[in-house]
Design brief:
The protein is α+β, with helices and mostly antiparallel strands and 189 residues long. Helices cover 28% and strands 34% of the residues. The longest helix has 44 residues, at 2-45. 15% of the residues are buried. Strands 5, 6, 7, 10 and 11 form a five-stranded antiparallel beta sheet that branches. The chain has a three-stranded antiparallel beta sheet with strand order 1-4-8, with no helix packed on it. It has a three-stranded antiparallel beta sheet with strand order 2-3-9, with no helix packed on it.
Length: 189
């Protein structure tokens, strides 16, 4: 009789384990549907409009990797006074370079900015080297898991065509000495 109870208990356990994966699958499918609908809502809300409260889908950091963005976006240009440009114009802008460190501490090394004017030649570029950044900001250190803003005021030379966008690269070193390139992009208004 004891043997019969053991056999019954083994059968009961087998039946419980057979029912459990079915419930688990239903819960997993439900979770996937809810997450998919949530992501769809975020993507739809990122439609291209000119309101300052829109969601921006840019190259941003995850919790593990570093990333950078320009703010504000779109970027406004201001003409530079006193600069003569035959057949074109010179301009500058004020923007924030916002860098988010991932799981490693970062040190900003340099920034290169390129104006994109829609031709295949590109536009003027400005490189802000490490000594100039150090003079302006002091420490260029970004702690792991934090975000830091660097206020930049690049002045671009003469350009014949109205630029459409600003692209750039922020070069950073992690705490292990590896150099990383953070791509940046912003539209121009």
């Amino acid at each position: 009789m004891a043997f019969g109870l053991r056999a019954l208990g083994a059968t009961f356990k087998a039946r419980c384990h057979v029912k459990s994966p079915t419930r688990l699958r239903k819960a997993a499918v439900h979770a996937v549907v809810v997450l998919s609908l949530g992501m769809l809502g975020v993507l739809i809300s990122a439609c291209d409009d000119d309101s300052p409260h829109r969601v921006l889908l840019l190259n941003t950091a995850t919790s593990f990797t570093p990333g950078g963005i320009f703010s504000p976006n779109p970027i406004r240009l201001a003409p530079l006074g006193g600069v003569q440009c035959p057949g074109g114009f010179a301009f500058g802008t004020t923007l924030n370079l916002i860098i988010t460190a991932g799981i490693h501490d970062l040190t900003l090394d340099s920034v290169t900015l390129h104006m994109i004017d829609g031709t295949n030649l590109g536009g003027p570029s400005v490189t802000i080297p490490s000594p100039e950044l150090a003079t302006q900001f002091g420490s260029m250190f970004i702690h792991a898991g934090t975000t830091r803003a660097f206020a930049l005021q690049p002045a671009f030379g003469c350009i014949a065509n109205q630029p459409r966008s600003l692209r750039g690269d922020a070069f950073v070193f992690d705490n292990q000495g590896r150099r990383q390139t953070l791509p940046l992009e912003g539209s121009i208004r």
